Amino acid sequence: MKPALTKSSIRAALASTAILCVTMGVAHAQAPTLSQTVLMSGLEGPWDMAFLDDGTMFFTEKCRGLSVRLPSGDVKPLLGMVRSSGFDNIAYDLFCEGQAGMMGVAVDPDFASNRRIYVMSTSSLTAPASNRVMRLEVSEGLDAVSNRTDIVADIPFKPRSSAHPFGGPGAHNGGRVRFNPGDGFLYVTTGDTHNGVVPQSPTLMGGKVLRIDTDGNAAAGNGAPDGFDARIFTYGHRNVQGIAFRPGDNRAVVAEHGPWHSDEITALVPGGNGGWDPRPGMGGRPDCPDNYCGYSPNQMEGMDPGERAAFMPMTDLNSFPDAMPPAWNNNRLSQGTGSAAFLQGEQWGDWNGRMVVGIMGIGFGGTPVGQRIDLIDLAEDGLSVNDVSEMPLPMEPGRFRSVVLGPDGNLYAAMDEGEIYQIVPN
Amino acid sequence: MKHHLLAAACAALLASFQTASAQSAADAAEIYASNCAACHGRGGKGVSVYPSLVGRTDAYIADRLTTYRARERLGPNSALMIPVAVKLSDEDITSLSVFISTTFK
């Protein structure tokens, strides 16, 4: 019996792609060769990491909770979720459902003096449930957290199933939290929760990038239009899971999932509109399943990504001429851009300053799965890319949920499969 | 002489079955790696919103794949499963179901 679907066709496609890459001149004269170490394995859906200067790594698992890996390699559980085991300290309101659960983690720039970290998680403290950003204080011994303060408590959560792909509860939460080293504010990315009215809403915190201080107050200069919640830095997003700040000017750049087409990399401007509006009746679109046009038309079948983009644009420049244009749209494909970081340091050779984007991989309607890490050379004005190439991975690819540059200058990558890798340039 | 011929024939037939079985398992492993592992994980544990296959029987897996192949929806991931399943032959489904049920225990 010959298998109907084998790796051979994929190998052929990869070979063609390799040839194409060479002819496009994306080989780098001084690109580093990479080696890797499996830093951790056997985790349950590792979602994000955040480091102290000595290499101490806080990490989240979507359905388990928050833990810390010490430079010695010892791991200490810090905050569990309902139904997780192995934690002395459990917050019973924290739960996981579908894509939702414990997600991003960030370390306070003044951690040395205030011991604070920030974690985004789904919580049952409200009905329906919500996503929230918690501020926690870490003990001197790095073995406990206390003084939980929920500094953002009103990020929407999808409570019920809907008639869409991935239509279960908990869809599209965003979930990344990052401090901008330039302005010191905390940026929080959120998702549209499969709710058509959320992204363009001035008051619902889904489909946004929030910019706040460490008490959850709006940062000055967010620039959202009159009538918008002052915490909103940008709006009109679908599901932003990656955000990073470009070395030099500290401009915020996001990586956002597309809807069966067009993953986008976008350099943000204060008060900007991402141009995503999945409401029925907008842009000439008719009624859509459960009042959400995000996967329309023909949401359960494959079709030309360009036709999809014309019908339901990720960035609708016709309806919103002033929307922020993406710098790159993954060649009109949607493969799941999950996270972003900038490489920094001479050890990265020609890649120094490039944005790395972890792509989880979604094979639908003829789209190649595409699990990989891309290297993106963003144009200075943020409106285009000078070059995009694929990182030659030193390990088998997987669902890259998080990429973080460590204090040692190495890249750390978490896969949904349960591993956290240290990727070292040589 | 007849007994020797019969024994040789049986041995050859058995060997062909074993070869076919091994080939079937290898094909199933390749199908899984190429089409299933990206979502269900290399170890079948499931990742993100994609369910675990650990502990599932071959009958369960075959039933689900056959249903998806018939373009019937089963839950929120049907849009991803149907295009994969429609390309599977009966033999693919059988070998893949056995592979999954015996590999991810």
Structure description:
The complex is a heterodimer of chains A (426) and B (105). By secondary structure, chain A is mostly beta strands. Chain A has one domain (30-425): 6 Propeller (Neuraminidase). Chain A contains three helices and 25 strands. Chain A has helices spanning 7-23, 111-114, 305-311; strands spanning 34-40, 46-51, 57-61, 65-69, 75-81, 90-91, 102-107, 116-123, 130-138, 145-156, 177-179, 186-189, 209-212, 232-235, 240-245, 252-256, 264-267, 272-273, 337-342, 355-359, 372-378, 385-390, 400-405, 411-415, 420-425. Chain A has a five-stranded mixed beta sheet with strand order 2-3-4-5-6, with no helix packed on it. Chain A has a five-stranded mixed beta sheet with strand order 11-12-13-14-18, with no helix packed on it. In chain A, a hairpin with a 6-residue loop joins strand 21 and strand 22 (385-390). The model of chain A is unreliable at 1-27 (pLDDT under 50). Chain B has 105 residues and is mainly α. Chain B has a single domain, classed as Cytochrome Bc1 Complex, Chain D, domain 2 (Orthogonal Bundle). Chain B has helices at 2-35, 37-40, 58-69, 78-85, 90-103. In chain B, helix 1 crosses helix 5 and helix 3 (58-69) crosses helix 4. Chain B is globular and about 60 Å long. The N and C termini of chain B lie far apart (47 Å). The relative contact order of chain B is 0.16. The interface between A and B is large, with 37 and 34 residues.
